[in-house]
Amino acid sequence: MDFLFTPWRYAYVTAANHPGNCLFCGLVQAKNDEEVFIVHRAKHCFVVLNAYPYTSGHTMVVPYEHVDQLQKLSTPAAEEMIALSQRLEGVMRELYRPDGINLGMNLGKAAGAGVADHIHMHLLPRWFADVNFMTSVGETRVLPEDLQTTYKRIKSKF
């Protein structure tokens, strides 16, 4: 097994998992949306790029409410989360022409949540054979688009 060291992720990972220091709540307080990749701010939720995407276009819909369970989310925020997810699906289909889209939430650490105390919805465009040699054997992801380009493309649709 080869190891790919990514020390620049250390600050991100430790900040996300530090008690009382929520990554998403911190993003909301940012002065410059482009620097933190917030694509859109709505009334109850915001849309943000995943800083460490699985595929180009990997986006999240995050409620402003800091809750760790979907059942705790207010109805208006839950409704807006779905509405923004629907809108993002259309944006992804238009911009990326994927063969499919992964949509989902990981609730709790055991379910794979990187930020377990603040729920968020992931949307990822997918293509047939997008898990190729580099991913499956080389255990390295290759993204054809940098985050600044992804940001500008998705932001233009909001």
Could you explain the architecture of this structure?
With about 160 residues, this protein is an alpha+beta fold. It has one domain (about 5-155): HIT family, subunit A (2-Layer Sandwich), CATH 3.30.428. Helix content is about 35%, strand content about 15%. It contains six helices and five strands, in the order H-H-H-E-E-E-H-E-E-H-H. A five-stranded antiparallel beta sheet has the order 1-2-3-5-4. Strand 1 (about 40) and strand 2 (about 45-50) form a beta hairpin. The protein is globular, with a radius of gyration of 16 Å. The chain starts with 9 loop residues before the first helix and ends with a helix.
Lateral strand order in the biggest sheet: 1-2-3-5-4
| Computed Rg | 16 Å
Q: What oligomeric state do these chains adopt?
A: single chain
**What is the global morphology?**
globular
Order of helices and strands: HHHEEEHEEHH
What is the straight-line distance between the termini? 42 Å
| Tally of helical segments | 6
For the secondary structure, the number of strands is: 5
Q: What is the CATH architecture assignment? A: 2-Layer Sandwich
Total individual domains = 1
Determine the CATH superfamily.
Answer: HIT-like
Helix content: 25-40%
- Nearest-integer average pLDDT: 86
- What would CATH call the class? Alpha Beta
Topology record:
Blueprint: H1 10-16, H2 23-28, H3 33-36, E1 38-41, E2 45-49, E3 59-63, H4 75-96, E4 100-104, E5 121-126, H5 133-136, H6 147-155
Antiparallel strand pairs: 1-2, 2-3, 3-5, 4-5
What is this entry, summarized?
By secondary structure, the chain is α+β, with helices and mostly antiparallel strands. The protein contains six helices and five strands; from the N terminus they run αααβββαββαα.
